[in-house]
């Protein structure tokens, strides 16, 4: 009899079945997908009477702190001297360096496994379930929880809905599969408050973030007949608003929301003498090549880099590079 191909999740399920103490690890600069998926897994694994620890190198951003269990997150340096784990399970971590300081936990653990959806993931754990077709890691987490016969409670549903919403911009990106809609439907059935998720993730903002956005829009500049736009914020802008670095995440897209814009750059002083660049483009134009020129990288339509140049100089150089990129196609 021919052996059936092992399902990609089988190895991860086996690793969980034989583990008692499990450490869930999120990626640096955490987003809703890594945090939501890990929180959902924690709740599911608690149903299976596992001891679960949650780790992330960076603090969970404010806008995700409404999620159940979020207060359980620890930074790797908070781990007790004698703490050991049977399994480290990485969640939405595209490569080992994306764990940041959490990689130190790997030395305290017997086995390693991961679930992820980045097609660049080369499988750095013993057991790897990587589904590049999944628009969010939350979809893989959902399947895993079902395969473990966990009950999808209202709390689990809200965590997974946040993960799925984050990576698909509430189910509107090109990557959104019919499966993603079906799963979101099931999560809503399980009690995920989809309107609340939408408001918390995309509408509601602290006043300091609105103040920063106002300053950002004041710097909006059109280049190359409006095909390129730029936004630039100084450290002084952040200080004046009492804004945090995470408050700037939403700004990059505004340069892209303008009719006729094909590429945009959002540049901000990073407080360490450098400038952080966020680049965006409208399909089919690509900014990954521009990012590479400045020592960065990323996706075709969303990329970034950090440079050591004065703010204005940085913007000028990126705009020049973008012009060259656009002229290639003309
Ligand atoms: Mn993700």
Structure description:
The protein has helices spanning 10-17, 32-47, 137-147, 154-168, 178-189, 194-203, 207-218, 235-241, 288-293, 311-328, and strands at 21-25, 51-55, 73-74, 85-91, 109-116, 127-130, 221-223, 228-233, 263-269, 275-281, 297-298, 302-307. The protein has 330 residues and is an alpha/beta fold. It folds into two domains: 10-203, inorganic pyrophosphatase (n-terminal core) (Alpha-Beta Complex), CATH 3.90.1640.10; 207-328, Diaminopimelate Epimerase, Chain A, domain 1 (Roll), CATH 3.10.310. The chain has a six-stranded parallel sheet with strand order 3-2-1-4-5-6. It is globular and about 60 Å long. The relative contact order is 0.09. Manganese (II) ion is lined by residues 33, 92, 117, 136-137, 167.
Keywords:
single chain, 330 residues, alpha/beta, inorganic pyrophosphatase (n-terminal core), Diaminopimelate Epimerase, Chain A, domain 1, 2 domains, six-stranded mixed β-sheet, 10 helices, 12 strands, globular, binds manganese (II) ion
List the helices and strands and how they pair.
Blueprint: H1 10-17, E1 21-25, H2 32-47, E2 51-55, E3 73-74, E4 85-91, E5 109-116, E6 127-130, H3 137-147, H4 154-168, H5 178-189, H6 194-203, H7 207-218, E7 221-223, E8 228-233, H8 235-241, E9 263-269, E10 275-281, H9 288-293, E11 297-298, E12 302-307, H10 311-328
Parallel strand pairs: 1-2, 1-4, 2-3, 4-5, 5-6, 8-9
Antiparallel strand pairs: 7-8, 9-10, 10-12, 11-12
């Amino acid at each position: 009899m021919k052996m059936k191909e092992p399902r990609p999740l089988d190895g991860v399920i086996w690793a969980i079945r034989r583990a008692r103490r499990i450490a869930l690890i999120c990626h640096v600069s955490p987003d809703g997908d890594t945090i939501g998926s890990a929180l959902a897994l924690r709740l599911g694994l608690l149903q299976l009477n596992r001891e679960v620890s949650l780790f992330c190198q960076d603090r969970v951003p404010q806008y995700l702190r409404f999620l159940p269990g979020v207060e359980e997150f620890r930074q790797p340096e908070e781990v007790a001297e004698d703490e050991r784990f049977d399994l480290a399970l990485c969640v939405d971590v595209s490569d080992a360096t994306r764990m940041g300081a959490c990689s130190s936990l790997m030395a305290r653990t017997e086995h390693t496994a991961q679930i992820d959806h980045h097609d660049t993931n080369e499988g750095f754990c013993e057991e790897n379930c990587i589904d590049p077709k999944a628009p969010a890691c939350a979809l893989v987490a959902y399947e895993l929880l079902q395969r473990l016969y966990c009950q999808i409670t209202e709390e689990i549903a809200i965590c997974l809905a946040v993960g799925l919403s984050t990576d698909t911009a509430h189910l509107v990106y090109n990557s959104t599969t019919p499966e993603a809609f079906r799963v979101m439907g099931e999560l809503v059935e399980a009690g995920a408050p989809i309107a609340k998720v939408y408001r918390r993730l995309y509408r509601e903002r602290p006043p300091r973030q609105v103040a920063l956005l106002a300053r950002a829009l004041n710097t909006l500049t059109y280049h190359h007949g409006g095909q390129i736009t730029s936004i630039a914020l100084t450290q002084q802008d952040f200080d004046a608003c009492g804004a945090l670095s995470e408050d700037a995440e939403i700004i990059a897209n505004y340069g892209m929301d303008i009719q006729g814009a094909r590429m945009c750059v959002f540049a901000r002083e990073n407080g360490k003498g450098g400038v952080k660049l966020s680049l965006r483009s409208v399909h089919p134009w690509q900014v990954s090549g521009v990012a590479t020129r400045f020592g960065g990288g990323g996706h075709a339509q969303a990329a970034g880099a950090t440079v050591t140049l004065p703010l204005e100089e940085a913007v000028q150089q990126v705009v020049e590079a973008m012009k060259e990129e656009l002229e290639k196609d003309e």
